[in-house]
Amino acid sequence: MLEFIIYKSIICAIIFAVSLGIAAYSTWWERKFAGLLQDRWGPSRAGIWGLLQPLADGGKMLFKEEIIPNVSNKFLFVLAPALFIVTAIMAGVLIPWGPPVKIDETFYALQVSDINVGIIFLLGVTSIGVYGIMIGGWASNNKYSLLGAIRASAQMISYELAMGIALIALIITAGGTLSFSEIVAAQDKGFANIVWQPLGFIIFFICALAETNRAPFDLAECETELVGGYHTEYSAFKLGLFLFAEYINMFVSSAVMAGFYFGGYNFPFAHELYQAMGLQEGSWIISLIGFGSYFTKTLIFISVFMWIRWTIPRFRYDQLMNLGWKSLLPLSLLNLLITVIVEYFKGNINL
Amino acid sequence: MQLTNRGKVVSNKEQSLAEKIYFPAIIKGMAITFSHLFKKRPTIMYPEVKRQYADVYRGQHVLKLDENGAERCTSCGMCAIACPAEAIIMESAERKKGEEHLYREEKYAKTYEINMLRCIFCGLCEEACPKEAIFLTDRIVDAEYERDTFIYGKDKLVEKIDKRIDVTKRQTPEVQEFKKLPGYKHNELYQKKLKK
Question: Which residues have C-beta within 8 Å of that of residue B131, sequence separation ≥ 6?
């Protein structure tokens, strides 16, 4: 029992630290990448290549004046950023970062929790995330905040449907399991799910952009129209928590996409490589390489998120709703239908 | 009436399928932004690398000393009159005995102030000066926190005897010629004085 607690706490601590570290350095990379895409250099003053910029930003956020508006609902105002970041980090517990390590004849999964209804948990937690935005926007007692919050919640709820249906198609191809680690492990032999679910992946990707409130779906913040959207009234570290949570959301959804559709810690010819290196199953080197593979994929997805942000202009609100309800939802249903028919003729589904 | 060839005829024709699904356009746009990753950047890393200024760049002023180290300025006020921004204020004083090594002529500027916030760095003061005393240099006026500190007095304007400032770059032959042109009142006076 003690052993179990130690193992889980270590994994928890590592994943917590990595999530926060990635979130911090996403801000740096966002600015650097934006600079590079726009023929600039981006941050270059704080440390080499501006690598200390996140520390400087964090320090700034910490020491700025904390303002809670007089007319706000103070309890909810304080609760919202906390709720947002908690749900953001919570979604990260499912991700299996590498093949299990074998120590003393027992396998230790590199995952905080292998919930057997992982996908449902994931969808649930990300839906709760919208409460952080909604409560924050409402408690601010500011029309811009409220508009941002309403937009965010409407957008997240609309896109969750298409996302869920795209995931159902994925579950069917992955063999009917809802567990994240099993979906990733199923891609060990054969192809990654992207081969069977290209349309599903595109739908999921667009919905992930919308769910994380990233451009071109960043209507919740929408600097040009709503000042700062739902976090207009927030200052100092509460604002920092909101921004942080957004980057954690981005990190988690990138990891989810890499795991669901791109094989997670698996990569082509992995087994041949391990055999050539003479590694046994459960070796920590295999886990390390697997982790490296997963992490690289995740970072590439984060970069793609940013690349999209600096290319595509923001959608108008009605365009957003049209895309969600009139295009993505029917498309995901079509995708589900095709998947079911194909799997039926392959004999994987019995009616 | 057609002014340029860049006009575009607007049409309301229905979008084609490729346009409707957005993807081709999005991929095209992303390719464009991606290609910019490898483009040359025009950034100059300022404090380490400095841009080359033109030889005749008009920056912060200097009040020159003559070859003996005496101030050339006689406080005639020509520069102040020439100044379109009215940035120059000076106060004259008479040279006392024993100050010959400090001031070249009998009259000198007790105070000489240029308001760098008003100054538009046109160089007319330099043109107006009959004594070759004021010049614009290629130095940049520093940023300050207070408005008052932008009023530069003689302590900042007069060059140091051991740290002479080279203005030969602005003293091109064309400039020398230009300064001798008639039509400039002080030049005429100067010429007359020479003739006497």
Answer: B72, B73, B74, B76, B104, B105
What confidence category does residue B117 fall into, taking pLDDT thresholds of 50, 70 and 90? very high
Do the domain assignments include residue B10? no
Q: What is the CATH number of the domain that holds B148?
A: 3.30.70.3270
Nearest Cα residue in chain B from A309: B30
Kindly determine whether residue A37 and residue B34, on different chains, have CB atoms separated by under 8 Å. yes
Q: ipTM for the complex?
A: 0.74
CA of A180, closest CA in chain B: separation in Å?
30
The verdict on residue B97 lying in a domain is yes
Between CA A263 and CA A261 the distance in angstroms is 6
What are residue B135's DSSP bridge partners? B62
Q: Is A120 in CB contact (< 8 Å) with chain B?
A: no
Tell me the shortest Cα–Cα distance from B8 to chain A, in angstroms.
22
Q: Which residue has the tokens 């020439």?
A: B82
Each residue's pLDDT tens digit, A140-155: 888 888 888 888 888 8
Q: Is the dihedral of CA A182, A183, A184, A188 positive or negative?
A: positive
Q: With CA atoms as reference, report the closest residue to B57 among B165, B147, B135.
A: B135
The domain tally of chain B equals: 1
Q: What is the pTM of this model?
A: 0.77
Interface with A, mutate which of B22, B41, B44, B45 (most A CBs under 10 A): B41
